[in-house]
Amino acid sequence: QNQSDLLVFGSDNVGLKDADFYYYDPSETSWFYMGNTSFDGQSSTIFPWYVPQTLLGTGYKVKTVIRDYQGNESQEVEWGPFEIIDGSSPTFEVLSPNGGEVWEIDSTQNIFWTAQSPNGINEVDILLIYPNKTQEIDYNSPNTGSYTYTAPSRNSYISDQLKVRVRGEDSVTFVESEDESDGFISLVDNTPPPSA
Fold first, then answer.
1. Are 118 and 88 in contact, with CB atoms under 8 Å apart?
2. Helix (H) or strand (E) holding 81
3. Would you state the pLDDT for residue 14?
4. Which terminus of the chain, N or C, has less C-beta within 10 A?
5. pLDDT-based confidence at 180, cuts 50/70/90?
6. Are 2 and 87 in contact (CB under 8 A)?
7. Helix, strand, coil proportions of the chain in percent (round to 5)?
8. Which residues contact 159 (CB under 8 A, 6 or more apart)?
9. What does the DSSP 8-state code read for residue 157?
């Protein structure tokens, strides 16, 4: 469930007591009671609507009815129609490298991952993670599931505690998620030493 806060304002010479909230389900062509919230002496109140995951699509509406302390009810105030989308977090999985791989400096390597999200993921960031720093591999790379990478060529990048991280966000909700290699990979220098 995802929470959506419904804000309502009102005024009354006696004093605002509470408000009932309803939602309209176009697939049922019916209104359903959601709950009640008190004004607590204020001129506005917020109702936290925990949207059921089964509600998806267009044509939804919400409405409220306000009461004062004498039981008088306001006219219905209605919002909509609007669309309800799936706000679940994306899921990522780095497939390769996933631990135990050995890369030589300046070598060509392939990075593979999977990414799923209710509304799609257009771009990803790919990072090389060191114990105490992070190196960009590529930002805003197309989410194709693979990337060809040229490993660093300098000895200063040699390490046996590296991981690859891939992250991205849902293209509609902008909820972000990430994954990285399960185990460490190594970057080594197997080139012959310089001659004297």
1. yes
2. strand 77-84
3. 85
4. C
5. very high
6. yes
7. 0, 60, 40
8. 130, 131, 186, 187
9. G
Q: Residue 192 above 90 pLDDT? A: no
User: pTM score, two decimals?
Assistant: 0.71
The amino acid present at 181, given as its one-letter code, is S
Structure tokens that stand for 87 in this block: 């706000």
Q: How many residues does the chain have?
A: 196
pLDDT of residue 1: 61
Tokens 């780095």 appear where? 94
Strand ordering across the sheet containing 30-38: 30-38, 16-25, 57-68, 77-84
For residue range 46-87, list pLDDT tens digits in order: 999 999 888 889 999 999 999 999 999 999 999 999 999 888
Q: Name the pairing type of β-strands 57-68 and 16-25.
A: antiparallel
Residues 149-167 pLDDT 10s: 999 988 888 999 999 999 9
> What is the dihedral sign for C-alpha 142, 146, 148, 154?
positive
Cβ-Cβ contacts under 8 Å for 191 (sequence gap 6 or more): 104, 105
